[in-house]
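Can't attach files on this board, so I'm pasting raw text. These are the components:
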Amino acid sequence: MRIYILFLFSLAFLACSFLKPEKLKPVSKTKIDIPEPSDICPNADGSGYFVVSDNGFLAEISSDGKMLRKASFEGTDFEACFLKGDTLAVADERSREVHFFNPKTLERLGSREVPYPGGRNKGFEAICFNNTRNAWQLFSEKDPIWLFELDRNWLVSKKDKIKGLSDLSSATWHEGKLWLLSDEDHAVFCCHPKTLDIEKKWSIPVINPEGICFNTQGELLVVSDDMGILFNFGKVVNQ
Amino acid sequence: MKIKILSFIFCLAALSGRGQISLTNGRHNLEISGTISTFYNQRIFTPGNPENRINDDTSRPFDKSKNRFGLRDAQLQLEGRIGHEWEYELQVDFADMLNPSDIGENPGLMDAWVQYKGLRFLDIKAGYQKIPYSRNSLVPFIYSPFWQRSEMTRGEFFSRRDIGITLEKSLWNQKINLYAGMYSGMGEQVLTQYGGDNDPAGQFEYVVRADVAWPSRYRYRDYDVNQSPLPMFALGIAGRSVKRMFSSFLPGDDYYIRVISGSRQMATADFTFQYKGFSAQAEYHIARITPTNDTDPDTDNNRYRENRGTKDYKIGSLPTSFFKAGGFLGSLSYSNKKLKSIFSLRYDNFNPNDLVNDNTEETLSFAYAYQINGFNAMVKAQYWYRLSNRTNPLIQRFDDQFRIGIQFLLR
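---
Top answer:
Structure tokens for the assembled complex are below.
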């Protein structure tokens, strides 16, 4: 009886064989000075990056991961950042606020509240500016993953449900496509900017990936919260 | 009245449409969540053992009172954070609160603590809280396919919660976690009508724990539901010490060693691993107990295991003033997202007194969980297969058991 039960469990353990997505291998890894980094975007001249932390602060780091400066304003739980022209937008997951910073001085210019009734750690995980739709977009983490499109007054003008990801931890915009990152899937997704259909998926060997961006050379960068490491995956082709 | 309050609170939670309510004013964030879990339990009776019969009488039918429906959890949880300085948690299990039969292990209140993080270099947690000792005990049970923890870590051997102060420090991107705390030493009993005060000796229980993980921080979770792309490891050690004047037992106690007169030093070591859905845990415990009473108050029970060697009263062949207790648990698991399933196999043994021969309990447990919606909605099944000699009168658990039910998280 004992052996029979053990055999059934062993069989169940080995019973899975599925098609796997293409794997990306990092070409370089950089340790960064920021505790619990939760998102990243390039600075204006591409010499470094803005990074936000779960501890509620915004900082600028050099390309080799050293902290250059830190914003004096601190929030609760910064989970997303994106630079569009002279506006550096940062999403605070727990307080449901978006803060706007001057990217040159890191001075806070203002804040907007965007109500969302999910759990406190299931709020906004990503923010980016959709060039195709010429609008800011906020994304919830999971259960479900919502894309909220915002008008000029930062009111929700449109929302769409994103399917095909277990969760969403970051989003960015690159070469006319929407790029999404999933922590639970350990994967990067390239999506059609209007239909949001997933066009391609890559798996990445990163524990707790929380931030995604492309540098000025067009290389894919992913930051890991738990590992505190910035991974460079080189140029990724969506074909 | 309690039922009405419980119903009102769960209705309030359900009205959010998502189960979980999060309120914020920008600085103060409050989250309301809860857990409901319910099961059916079936015993597979061992023939010949009088304890399986009504009134322990072999001429009478099997006592099938354990074939039952049960409500394991009816929990309400308030978690809050004020700025960067304060965090708090208040968690109540109404199912335990309304059931005094196991009050020593589960008094109903699960958490009532505040934590100050303003010092930055060190966090201070005060109140009724989980004791940072056993890793298995620190893993929240809602993240498990099992219906019950191992015999050693479920709260019969050592108290899992107490009132006191814990100092916490994380290093190296939280890959190293250090804990030190002092507590009443009464464990869960400090909350009950039988407790409330400390032991007359006025001593505290002291606990320390350290764990280290690689290549990233390792949360207190046992199942690799996210299919970690890199192998992850964590190793922990912990110890605790208490000295008391009196024993203290409550309904539901099985081994009478949780809160015992005399001194007790305990140590544990644990290891955990996960990679691509596979995970493994191992945990070892040893306690050195120097009792001042040679038997517990339940002398009518006449269990040999409850005789304890003391300085003046020797039992067995070992002329010691102390006895040892402890055991080992190990588990192997596999989690598959596409199958929405967790499979787990656990072995645990427990010896409540090393001066008594042949009283080690051994169990092999199988668990399966089908995740309808992750851990939020999950059908769980567990089968306990007893490896111990089922005719040995020293063995507390000798029947196999099957339990199946559903866990639903309001979050």
